[in-house]
Amino acid sequence: TVLADNGMEVCLWSRREEQVTEINRRHTNSRFLKDTVLSEAIYATTSLEEAVRDAEAVILAATSASMREIAGKLQPYLPPEALLIHATKGFEVETMKRMTSVIAEELPSYDSRRIVVLSGPSHAEEVVLRCPTTIVVAAEEMEAAEAAQDLFINSHFRVYTNPDVTGVEIGGALKNIIALGAGLTDGLGFGDNAKAALMTRGLAEIARLGTAMGANPLTFAGLAGVGDLIATCTSKHSRNWRAGYMIGQGAALEEVLEKMGMVVEGVKTTQAAHILAQRYEVAMPITDALFRVLFEGKTPEEAVEDLMGRVRTHEIEDIAQEASAKWVP
Ligand SMILES: NC(=O)C1=CN([C@@H]2O[C@H](COP(=O)(O)OP(=O)(O)OC[C@H]3O[C@@H](n4cnc5c(N)ncnc54)[C@H](OP(=O)(O)O)[C@@H]3O)[C@@H](O)[C@H]2O)C=CC1
Ligand SMILES: O=C(CO)COP(=O)(O)O
């Protein structure tokens, strides 16, 4: 919608014939965006080759679990000059790799410095209504990030650039864990204090792992960090929040995922972050508590008790200030 508003011809690729027909005939995508009429500049196809032919930019926006498969399928068709952008928030859980690494591995002839990640507080339901939205684009090569900025920016969609690909990808992925936790505390009937605590201490552990993985800690104070954390932890649109809420109310994970019918990235990301925290030797108590609830049968109430009973500690970490001063793109 944003690109069509900016005068571009947009081709959507889907593997579902019925969805493609609906988009082309009725200009709606009722499974995902009820009550929205899409621009006539948007059309759809089941042919990936047709979708990317002569494309100025190719945007990968499916799930993290399907990124490798889709990037691999794209390989023979990607026009070499096209700008490659992804908007997926998660890790490849089998390898713990970030999305840009997965894409780079599947598209070895594409200059990986030009792969752009687009992230930030941006629920699709609000973007299609043209509600003011701000996001961030990051690439190792700043011209690529600026080219993505040029494509998307308009009066209702404001785009910032950032050279920190690692931080932007990690912020977008890890906030989903905290959103699950925020939903869970709401489902348990706790109030604003609990949610504020989770968001604040959640941001601390996002920044801790992110910094250990090479991100600029200041990125987590930006749109891909605290910005997306606020949107996702407080929004009725968030699938992660809703999934957490149902679990807090006593539902089992399998039942919740079945009901959602859409991706809840935070579940796989909790698995990935739990392992990454061990690998990088950083403390992620909220992630660990959620891991135990999701995968080890701990009750939400027990997890909260564990978190509140942890050994007392101080708030601000020196390491973050030092890392920020030293960080180079
Ligand atoms: N929704 C939002 O507001 C935002 C989402 N994101 C991120 O974007 C990503 C996608 O989210 P979202 O669109 O909401 O998720 P949904 O679950 O709503 O949709 C996922 C889409 O990916 C497609 N897909 C999954 N696997 C494959 C595959 N192997 N081949 C082809 N298509 C596939 C699905 O197609 P099919 O129906 O055929 O299964 C479906 O169209 C996530 O990482 C999310 O975190 C980021 C910002 C905002
Ligand atoms: O990342 C998002 C908004 O920025 C979407 O969050 P959910 O996947 O929780 O709906």
CATH superfamily grouping of the largest domain: NAD(P)-binding Rossmann-like Domain
Number of beta-strand segments: 9
- Proportion in β-strands: 5-15%
Q: Outline, from the CA principal axes?
A: globular
Small molecules (ligands, ions, cofactors) in the structure: NADPH dihydro-nicotinamide-adenine-dinucleotide phosphate, 1,3-dihydroxyacetonephosphate
Main sheet: strand order: 3-4-7-8-9
The CATH topology label of the largest domain is Rossmann fold
| First and last CA, distance | 32 Å
Instruction: Tally the structural domains.
Output: 2
Write the layout of secondary structure elements.
Blueprint: H1 2-5, E1 10-13, H2 17-26, E2 42-45, H3 48-52, E3 57-60, H4 67-74, E4 83-86, E5 91-92, E6 97-98, H5 99-106, E7 116-119, H6 124-127, E8 133-138, H7 142-152, E9 157-162, H8 165-187, H9 192-212, H10 223-234, H11 239-248, H12 253-260, H13 265-279, H14 285-295, H15 300-308, H16 318-326
Parallel strand pairs: 1-2, 3-4, 4-7, 8-9
Antiparallel strand pairs: 5-6, 7-8
Helix pairs in contact: 4-5, 8-9, 8-10, 8-11, 8-13, 9-10, 11-12, 13-14, 14-15
The chain binds NADPH dihydro-nicotinamide-adenine-dinucleotide phosphate and 1,3-dihydroxyacetonephosphate (13P).
